[in-house]
Fold:
Amino acid sequence: MTARAIGELLVAAESTLREAGLAEPRDEALYLLGLLLDRRRGQLLLQRAESVDRDVAERFHAWVRRRANREPAQHIAGEQEFHGLSFRVTPDVLIPRNETEMLVDELLAVTPRDGVVVDLGTGSGCIVVAAAVKRHDLRLQALECSSAALDVARSNARRHGVLDRVEFVEGDFSAPPEAWFGTAHTVVSNPPYVREAEWAALEPEVRDHDPRGALVAGEHGLEAYRVLIPQARLLLRPGGRLLLELGKGQAAEVRALAAAVGFASLQVKPDLNGIPRLLTAVLRSAP
Structure:
């Protein structure tokens, strides 16, 4: 492959990605080439006649083939933006989604000064790392059952200079450290909530590349909540807050699970698409 003009590369990539069934092939091509050349979209459009050398063209072509095979662009890039920060992502962690930023916003708003926050199932660490960057007073603890995911989370904390402010522990949220019991002002989690029957119909980028264990809860999609909510009750101080991301159509059932073990002031907030996405609850104080 000889040197190619930027415009020529973009046209060929857009065609390949359109044939692969991607919804926005032009935007995808611009994103990948912009990432490779470290240029913004507008720069690429203004510099369409500029040539790039053969090595760059071949690398771009390889990236386009990967994307055409429905590998997530975030895995190709090795990163994803979340709450204004860049996070390292690998196939060992769930790619941070925009809707999960609601958890961070709520956490920052309701946790008192010098408060303790526990993240159950931290994955990439995006929630606790974003919180640590935005609020230096918080004490943050994160639990994750996957050692590979925990390595990614620690690397993200290191990237943003907060590794010394987050306690990462390997373990399942069915059995959090007893030393944490009764200490948390806020417990937050984006648990698995996909039903087994929904797995096959997910987009290939999700089904074939995100870790199944971070997505699929079981037959009903509520299995993780049934385990997590009682554990959150043990972790929280009286009057502490529970913040949970919700799957579509699960709000009423998860709300009932929380109410059954002593949570009150239950509220459900929608995401930008109007889907009930965030449950907030307060642990009742002892009588």
